[in-house]
Write a structure and sequence with these properties.
Elements: H1 24-32, E1 42-44, E2 53-58, E3 61-70, H2 77-93, E4 98-108, H3 114-130, E5 135-142, E6 147-156, E7 171-175, H4 181-189, H5 198-205, H6 210-216, E8 223-226, H7 231-243, E9 247-250, H8 258-265, H9 271-279, E10 284-286, H10 292-299, E11 307-312, H11 313-325, E12 332-336, E13 345-348
Parallel strand pairs: 4-5, 9-13, 10-13
Antiparallel strand pairs: 1-2, 2-3, 3-6, 4-6, 7-11, 7-12, 8-11, 9-12
């Protein structure tokens, strides 16, 4: 490695962040091959492609279990650690849980100095400290590309679990962070970030979903997920399929980072985003006038994206107002659950 040039972690990774995930079309058939789980204490397992597993310890306490790790999505080692930690913690919040402790997951090349790993770990520790927990152990192996993430354990009351399987006809869909993170980080990795939008993207990705989750906990929430590698429509598909409903998304109401709109029009999008779009062909119907660029934005592979909640329409305005008052990055009503169904989604302009 040429030490006279600034270190750029993204140049060491073939795929960045959650865009490195295998697409749902690859994963879902594999999950279907797993043997059924018969333990009655498993309240949420892999069957519904939810954000984390839930294991009941007693009538008042359940564990929330998750792991998330990936290759660098930003160049700064410290920021890489921060983004990866916020992304892993998000799965706990998406289940209605409270983080308790974390373990680090590390793959690190011999070609990099150990100080780089130290910066990654320090960045992650800063975010977990913000979340009120500590990284209390972990495991490290040698790899060709840097890999980092966390295994996180949280807690939740068994009667207060928020899964992706409870959406009901009449619900409104609310999103708490803007889209476009995959497109912007890909532009930065490929030296095409002419707007310098990576700074805003890092700010979004390192913002914990804790506050949004705390606000949502004050209301009736039927289903909850976080928007990460499968994009808004991919994670909404998980909600609709698990809940046995259909969804309608109002494309013009979905918050999107400004630079991402410009970049996608220039043809910039990660491979994970395009894989999501391809997989969703069988699930999503786009109304006339929904451009392919807008379709890609709705399928964009996010890293540490926002929460997507299904709430009763009668409470939707109040929820949005509460999220805004708490200072969440976005607090938009982006669609609705019109009826029961088999998981299909229709993308339209708002009524």
């Amino acid at each position: 490695m040429n030490t006279t040039e600034p270190l750029r972690l993204t140049k060491l990774a073939k795929r960045a962040g959650c865009a490195a995930k295998h697409p749902p079309g690859f994963l879902l058939p594999l999950l279907g091959m797993l043997p059924p789980v018969h333990d009655p204490n498993v309240l949420v397992g892999s069957a519904t492609a939810d954000d984390a597993a839930i294991y009941k310890l007693n009538n008042d306490l359940a564990l929330v279990l998750t792991t998330d790790f990936f290759t660098p999505i930003v160049d700064s080692p410290h920021d890489f650690g921060r983004v990866a930690a916020a992304n892993a913690l998000s799965d706990i919040y998406a289940m209605g849980g409270k983080p308790m402790a974390a373990l680090s997951i590390v793959g690190f090349p011999d070609s990099l100095p150990a100080t780089v790993l130290g910066e990654i770990l320090a960045g992650a520790a800063a975010i977990t400290h913000e979340a009120g927990i500590a990284i209390i152990g972990g495991h490290t192996i040698k790899t060709e590309e840097p890999i980092f993430g966390l295994a996180v354990v949280g807690t939740v009351h068994p009667q207060q679990v928020l899964s992706n399987a409870g959406a009901k006809p009449g619900d409104t869909l609310i999103l708490t962070k803007p889209l476009g993170l995959g497109i912007i980080t890909t532009a930065a990795k490929n030296d095409q970030d002419s707007r310098g939008a990576i700074a805003e993207a890092i700010s979004v990705m390192t913002t914990l979903n804790r506050v949004a989750a705390e606000v949502l906990a004050r209301f009736e929430v039927h289903a909850l997920t976080d928007v990460t590698g499968f994009g808004l429509l991919g994670h909404l598909r998980n909600i609709t399929a698990a809940s046995g409903v259909t969804a309608e998304v109002w494309a013009d109401r979905v918050p999107v980072l400004k630079a991402a709109r410009e970049y996608v029009q220039a043809g910039i999008a990660p491979g994970g985003t395009r894989a999501n779009w391809k997989f969703l062909t069988d699930w999503v119907e786009y109304a006339p006038g929904i451009s392919q660029e807008l379709q890609l934005l709705l399928c964009d592979a996010q890293t540490s994206g926002g929460l997507l909640a299904a709430v009763p329409t009668a409470q939707a305005d109040e929820v949005v107002q509460a999220l805004a008052a708490a200072g969440t990055l976005a607090n938009a009503q982006v669609g609705r659950i019109p009826c029961e169904g088999v998981g299909k989604i229709r993308v339209v302009m708002s009524p």
